[in-house]
Design a protein that fits this description.
Length: 335
């Protein structure tokens, strides 16, 4: 018998029971909660609303960088260090989307397979679904689900799409940027876009030629950056495959969280993240209730030909329609 089956007299019992089970440590329940978030629509909105009172305790670490930098191996090593200290770890491993199924290719989960049996670790692979920022659209919701279910630290590993991986900055408290020697111009490989979001820089695969030079270049960039905060950014050498430099990286992560908690950075970032979430929900609601209906409004469809013939101005008409929709909405509120 499926213990999560909805009942006719309580259609929301599935969500409430899943939350109770997930918070009690049931990995299957956690997986179902994240699936509900990924599904989108009313079910996702309802699930996230019910999870919200239980969130706000977990720390979120972003791990980003170009493809082939060894991010998943580094995440695996970090997770094991956290676990050795009794910390529950949730991992959202964002993989490229399969062009056939639309789902994650699951490469990261395969590489971290030996963590799966650990009851204190939960790994979820998610597809980017074509999003260029390196994250899945449901990534923040998945992090909320893991937070609500009692995971102490959540590691978000991005897909590795190169210089456009800046969205992780809006989803994480601390961001680690991983690069490797031998990318050609190592500085240019990370300068455009993701250099500005890094709180820790890691030159992984440091046994390769050029690792010291790459680290030196990064140090020079952080020391000459106009932002005073950038001058104190750690630049570390690691070899995740050989488990070298991982303790130092763990120490740097803990230090960043402590510093950011003390100087207000952590609170400021979480406030900004909350603003983004609320505005995103508002835009979603407006799109469903106002924009989508407007696209089927005869007043719009009847004018397309006029726009094409340049007999009417689409920009002016759009403003007029917006004013009209707003006036109708306000009139409805008054009545």
């Amino acid at each position: 018998m499926n213990s999560y089956k909805k009942t006719a007299d309580n259609p929301d019992s599935v969500t409430e029971e899943l939350i109770r089970s997930g918070r009690a440590g049931d990995k299957r329940a956690v997986a179902k909660l994240i699936t509900a978030v990924e599904a989108g629509g009313d079910r996702a909105r309802s699930t996230l609303a019910r999870l919200w009172p239980y969130t706000g305790r977990a720390r979120i670490l972003g791990v980003t960088g170009p493809p082939g930098a060894g991010k998943s191996t580094l995440t695996d090593r970090l997770a094991k260090l956290f676990r050795s200290r009794g910390v529950r770890v949730g991992i959202v491993a964002v993989d490229p989307t399969s062009p056939f199924s639309g789902g994650a290719i699951l490469g990261d989960r395969v590489r971290m397979g030996d963590l799966t049996p650990d009851s204190g670790v939960f790994i979820r692979s998610m597809g980017t679904r074509g999003l260029l920022g390196g994250l899945s659209p449901a990534c923040a919701g998945a992090a909320d689900a893991l937070d609500a279910c009692g995971f102490d630290i959540i590691i978000i590993e991005t897909a590795g799409v190169g210089q456009s991986e800046i969205e992780v900055a809006s989803a994480a408290d601390v961001v680690t940027v991983v690069t490797v020697p031998g990318l050609g111009d190592d500085v240019q490989a990370i300068k455009a876009g993701i250099f500005e979001i890094g709180d820790i820089f890691v030159v992984n695969k440091s046994d390769r030629p050029g690792a010291d030079r790459a680290a030196a270049d990064l140090k020079a960039m952080t020391e000459t950056d106009g932002n005073a905060e950038k001058r104190s950014i750690p630049v570390l050498l690691t070899s995740a495959a050989g488990n070298a430099g991982i303790n130092e990286l763990y120490g740097a992560v803990e230090e960043r969280f402590e510093v950011f908690a003390a100087d207000g950075t952590l609170t400021a970032r979480r406030e900004e993240r909350l603003r983004r979430v609320v505005l995103s929900r508002v835009r979603d609601g407006l799109d469903r209730r106002v924009i989508a209906p407007a696209m089927t409004d005869p007043r719009f469809n009847d004018r397309v030909g006029e726009f094409l013939a340049r007999r009417e101005n689409p920009y002016e008409w759009a403003e007029e329609l917006t004013d009209s929709l707003y006036s109708e909405k306000m009139k409805g509120n008054r009545t």
